[in-house]
Write a structure and sequence with these properties.
Strand content: under 5%
Distance between the termini: 14 Å
Oligomer: single chain
Helix content: over 70%
Shape: globular
Radius of gyration: 21 Å
Length: 344
Amino acid sequence: MSTRWRNIFFFFGLAAIAVMLLTFESGISDIRSAVSQAGIWLPAVIALWVPIYLMNALSWYLIIKDGNTPRVPFIRVLKMTVTGFALNYTTPFGLMGGEPYRIMELSGYVGTEKATSSVILYVMMHICSHFCFWLSAIVLYVSLHFAGVGRYTLEWPTIVMLSVLTVVFVSVCILFARGFRNGFVVRVFGLLNRLPLVRRWSSAFLGAHSAQLRLIDSQICELHRTRRAPFWGSLLLEYSARIVGCIEYQILLGLMIPQITFVDSIIIMAFSSFFSNLIFFLPMQLGSREGGLAMASAGIAIPGSYGLTTALMTRLREMFWIIAGIAVMKIGNRRRDGSKRSDI
């Protein structure tokens, strides 16, 4: 990536961090109270995301490493992963800052088409793992109900909601399976050609870049067809990262409710993350996660105020990693000849 573009991403990230700090919905007294209540467990929660980011990076690394492209150092993939997520956290609609950044950084190693296909594939894995996680949480919730755990009730409104969500999640997983098997980039542009507002642009772009888009689709299909072990390994790592992330909720909620279990934290995180992802156009999902946590906690008979306190401490962890991700963007960048360069 050129110095100019890296500076654009860097200063955009700094500006987004400043806006978030100025518009943080909790007051200083609330933050101090949360930090005091968490104690040493807040640094522990921050450290928990080291293995999570390592799993995310390894998932993407398995996609990149195909034997036909130049070797990309894992530490570079880890750096791009952390910075990419930081940019996504700070961008409205999500996936609007981190993915272009990753493509531009990775293209210097493997070329634009390979970088684009690997980033698209990783995004598909990341999103698909969310739907698998939400679907497994529904199965877990229903299983606990029939096992006689009293707080997991199945009244008619809950039955209807879970049934609808199950149909939606299974349908989406089927769509992902077809996309992995047959490619989907060209199909997406085919759908865009039917929309009045973007038809002209989409048709022109498809006509000018048809060969490149078909190459990207073929590279997407290759992972599913001929590299099955990296394919399933990448998906499993992303799914496992969701499960490990539930430890955060068990730790933070456990400060207020000692009897909270890991199973409880899985279900709370699943429903909370689903609700917050419905409002994906807000940077850091401002407000939506707090509401989602409160609703999810109340849904299994945990006071909603505990969910709001947990959400605040989660915000502090996110802010730490956003700042870290933007900071490392400027560290260790080298020219192709191996010499360091100054980015500012």
